[in-house]
Amino acid sequence: MTGSESELRTVAAEDLRACMRLFPTGVALLTAGEGDSAMGMTINSVVSVSLSPPTLLVSVHQYARIAGRLVPGAEFSVSFLSADQAGLTRQFASADRPAGEAAVVAMGGARGANGVPFPVGAVGVLECLVDRTVPVGDHNLVIGLVVRAELGLADCSPQVFHCGELTTVHSADRPIDAST
Ligand SMILES: Cc1cc2nc3c(=O)[nH]c(=O)nc-3n(C[C@H](O)[C@H](O)[C@H](O)COP(=O)(O)O)c2cc1C
Fold this sequence. Notes:
By secondary structure, the chain is mainly beta. It has helices spanning 3-6, 13-20, 86-91, 101-106, and strands at residues 25-26, 28-32, 39-43, 46-51, 54-61, 75-80, 110-111, 117-118, 124-136, 139-151, 159-162, 165-168. The radius of gyration is 17 Å and the shape is globular.
């Protein structure tokens, strides 16, 4: 670290959190493992990184139980939750959440083609392989190659996290053309 970096003043964590909570995000379940080793965790740090190759990243606290599973080559899934799945969001963000087969049951009993459980009724499910992980601060950026995409029902409302509340979105007046 250079002298100028060590003297760099950064924002207090609570000020960063106070600003970030104003930025609405979707809510997802990050899942990994099968059977007795299955586990899930609520996340909102999902970024679509690249279409070629299809790549996403999620940011996982270095001490989260699922972090040790997310090593290069490991299979995981990211499921976008619907507005009526707030119970799953809270359950899988709690320290005493179910693990193993109990986690699979809590999610509704479904497994993807990769064997990893996903919550029944999710808006969409992306099955991924860990390409690499990059430690940044107290989190690991998990960069995943997307091997399969499953779309949920077209009319289900996505869950949105904003100002500490779980909410949803309503249609904009004018659809945005993503190709422009
Ligand atoms: C809406 C929401 C989004 C979250 N997003 C993340 C996230 O992106 N990364 C993360 O590491 N934890 C995130 N968390 C926190 C974890 O779900 C929670 O701290 C979990 O208990 C950590 O796992 P552990 O109990 O194994 O430590 C989020 C929690 C909520 C409620």
